[in-house]
Amino acid sequence: ISPSILSADFSKLGSEVVSLEKAGADYIHIDVMDGHFVPNLTIGPEVIKKLRPLTGKTFDVHLMISPVDRFIKDFADAGADIITFHPEATSDVSKTIKLIKDQNKKVGISLKPKSEINLIIDHLSEIDLVLIMSVEPGFGGQKFMPEVLEKTKAIRELINKKNLKVDIEIDGGINFENCSKVKNAGANILVSGSTVFKENKGDLKKNIEILRNN
């Protein structure tokens, strides 16, 4: 479970991250948006750098920025553990993968709901994670798009067929009702913002456990 801090209280972001660790989060999901690649602005490397000493949890950083290459070192230096980018945000996917690996970070590639699988097929053996967006990237609190389940199944079959160790992460509208469906489709990392922070009066531990066990 990788709670998205996009839904956290930004006035006390540090304590929110500490609370997520105590509540049993596996990763901390950090959405980076540039107002250009997606229609919203969020946080940059300086904020991640300030959060980094507060927890030993994996920082799962999703870069929704274009062009992405010139920012990779900044986010790596700030403390990202996994750096995920969109194939549409670079002119050379293999080069971007290499840039992330050169920083000794894990590599993720993200597919928007309408992005085709063929954008990543040739790169599956080079990466650690596929992040499937189940909403249009840009804003938290959107409704889950069930049509991405077929894409999730297809990618899981490809990974298994090639006998690769690649995680499938899913992000967007994940809640207590649909979390079992996405797991059954082949996702093994769930990103959730609104559900983790807002359900059960904000009981983070309870919400993480329900998502994990449903």
Structural commentary:
- The protein is an alpha/beta fold and 214 residues long.
- It has eight helices and eight strands.
- β3, α3 and β4 (82-85) form a beta-alpha-beta unit.
Question: Main sheet, how many strands, which sense, barrel?
Answer: 8 strands, parallel
Percentage of residues in DSSP E strands:
15-25%
H-E order: EHEHEHEHEEHEHEHH
User: How large is the count of helical segments?
Assistant: 8
| Cα-atom radius of gyration | 16 Å
Tell me the number of strands: 8
Category by helix and strand content:
alpha/beta
What is the mean predicted local confidence, pLDDT? 96
Q: Based on the structure, what is the oligomeric state of the protein chains?
A: single chain
Low-confidence stretches: none
User: Strand order within the widest sheet?
Assistant: 1-8-7-6-5-4-3-2
Report helical residue fraction: 25-40%
First-residue to last-residue Cα separation: 12 Å
The dominant shape is globular
Give me a quick take on this structure:
By secondary structure, the protein is an alpha/beta fold. Helix content is 33%, strand content 19%. It is globular.
Q: What is the element layout, followed by pairings?
A:
Blueprint (H helix, E strand, L loop, with lengths): L1 E2 L9 H10 L4 E7 L11 H7 L6 E7 L7 H7 L3 E4 L7 H10 L3 E6 L17 E5 L14 H14 L5 E5 L7 H7 L3 E4 L1 H5 L5 H10 L1
Parallel strand pairs: 1-8, 2-3, 3-4, 4-5, 5-6, 6-7, 7-8
Features:
8 strands, 8-stranded parallel β-sheet, globular, 8 helices, 214 residues, 33% helix, alpha/beta
